[in-house]
Amino acid sequence: xxxxxxxxxxxxxxxxxxxxxxxxxxxxxxxxxxxxxxxxxxxxxxxxxxxxxxxxxxxxxxxxxxxxxxxxxxxxxxxxxxxxxxxxxxxxxxxxxxxxxxxxxxxxxxxxxxxxxxxxxxxxxxxxxxxxxxxxxxxxxxxxxxxxxxxxxxxxx
Length: 157
Prior knowledge:
The protein is α/β, with parallel strands linked by helices.
């Protein structure tokens, strides 16, 4: 039984791993340090990423492989889970065959951290269950150009 939403836990662990609140760094600063990277729209032509919606700071791109209903459910999930918390983040939802891909920009090095890898897999399972009718979802930890650094297949738990 899960008592903590893995998306919120994921954001908290990103903040904890960056700094133990030394030198007056706030929680918001820690999250920014670990997660926020240059705006992908400044680096990549947005038409390469698909259509765009801004959900409380989250730049959600989605391709023509994603239905309007799936986009609506994803927007609701991002808000309800706390992922869309006003901080700028860049993500993309796509489908490759029967597998959905949730791409998210992360700071370099996060893709090597076992704790984040496990949380990313849990997040994939949540997106599958809450948004995509229990279909396979892989999380892609990406650089600021949304180029995959690491693929995290969905965990079943």
